[in-house]
Every structure is written in structure tokens, then in C-alpha cells.
Amino acid sequence: MLAAFLAAAVVAAPPAVAVWSPDTMPWSEARPGGAQRAVLEGDLNGPGLVTYAFHLPDGAWFPAHVHGSTARVFVMKGVLLLGQGPSGDHAQARCVLTGEAALVPAGLVHYEGAEGDTVIIGVAEGPWTTRFVGAADRK
Questions:
Q1: What is the pTM of this model?
Q2: In whole angstroms, what is the distance from residue 96 CA to residue 120 CA?
Q3: Residue of 77, 73, 86, 81 whose CA lies nearest to 121
């Protein structure tokens, strides 16, 4: 039985290489404000590694929110404006430039925006959850 398993493993084709660019990602239909998302690998609702992308048009902002797991975010294009805390104060956001990466810990209240047409790729453990921080949470 072990020999049959090993033989099957040897002839199984390796998975294909996946290459993503801002122009070839499987973008969702634009949301209000023009943002789009693409799930590149994994299942947002299941366990395991999830790789996703967001396209944020120039001037777009996401209000304060938290995620259920730590995100590793890579800026492929444009400038990600990343702020910490519930205020959503655009002036307090720091710039994460094309070619840079940021670590956003699970449970950290943060907000984000875009300067220029911006594309980010994020990697996190699923299930991937987002909870927006409402006025009641800001007291």
C-alpha cells in the first residue's frame, strides 16, 4: 500500500506557479467608493492561509476596523495610507509606499486610504474577518 502511495505521489503533477499583477487580478465588482477585492489563494471563511488583494482608487478611505487575524500587507502600486486607532484622522495616517510592507496585528483598530491608484496584497490566517468600529465602540 505504501508503494502505491509513493508511486502516485511521484507521478502527480506539481501545482502551477501563480503570478499576480494589478492588471490581471480577478477583481470583484467595484464596491461603493470604487474599492475592489480579489481572493488569490485560500478561503476567506475557512482555516488556513489566505492571500487577498485590494484595489483602492485615489482618495478612497476605509473607516476604523479590526481583523480577526494578523495581516501582512504588501503595497504593489500607489501609496497605502495606514492609521492606527478609532479616530480615522487622515492627517495621522502614515504612508506605506510601493515596494514596502506593513504588519497589522489581529485586533488592532486601524483605518486606511489610498494616495493614487493603490493595490495591496495581504496574507493572513483564515477565517478572515473584518469588524468595523462603530460610534458605540469609540467611547
A1: 0.83
A2: 10
A3: 73
Cα–Cα nearest to 76, from 29, 44, 121, 106: 121
pLDDT digits (tens, 9 = 90+) for 46-58: 999 999 999 999 9
> Closest Cα to residue 119, out of 65, 43, 68, 60?
60
- 98 DSSP assignment: T
Distance CA 131, CA 19 (A): 30
127: left (phi over 0), alpha (psi -120 to 50) or beta: beta
Torsions phi, psi for 46 (to 5 deg): -115, 175
Is residue 54 within 8 A of residue 35, CB to CB? The reply is yes
